[in-house]
Design goal:
2 domains, 7 helices, mainly alpha, transmembrane, single chain, 0% strand, 55% helix
């Protein structure tokens, strides 16, 4: 059973006003009220705060954005892996790979061209570049690339790099 707490009301004056606007008597009265079971205003404020938070989250639109294929490809090959392209045109070179796949060039020929034109020029780097170009810039050609790469074996003496990053 809740006990009644009597708190005297002060007039607006400087007497008893602390740093935060409440005097020692008012703070003590607040503590006594909470201890005596007068928690409904506090609970109501907490419930209202969570309800408002839920409304704000419900009204906020969800982001479902994906970068354009050219942006993602450029990030993958210029920022993540730091390839050096002829004429410094990564996207143009990627579309060139797509054209070669669409024209039916063999995977071995495409890999050889990439290793000649671009640095780093190891087997792993060339494979990464070819697969990402086709996957992001011309996904309709993925099956053509897979069929062309069936049975591909790297040239003798090719090893994976010491690190992939």
């Amino acid at each position: 059973m809740a006990m009644a707490v009597h708190c005297p009301v002060r007039s607006a004056g400087r007497h008893g006003v602390g740093r935060h606007g409440l005097g020692g008597d008012e703070v003590g009265c607040l503590v006594k009220a909470l201890a005596a079971g007068h928690r409904w205003p506090l609970i109501a404020n907490i419930v209202a705060m969570f309800a408002l938070y839920g409304v704000v989250l419900t009204l906020a639109p969800l982001a479902h954005a994906k970068p354009a294929p050219e942006v993602e490809y450029l990030y993958d090959v210029a920022v993540r892996r730091h390839y050096n392209f002829p004429d410094n045109d990564a996207v143009g070179y990627g579309y060139g790979i797509c054209d070669k796949v669409a024209q039916g060039e063999s995977y071995a020929q495409i890999m050889g061209d990439v290793k000649t034109d671009v640095t780093p020029n190891d087997e792993f780097a060339a494979n990464y570049l070819v697969s990402y170009a086709v996957d992001l810039l011309c996904p309709a050609e993925i099956w053509q690339l897979r069929n062309s790469a069936a049975g591909y074996q790297p040239p003798a003496g090719e090893t994976a790099p010491a690190t992939y990053y």
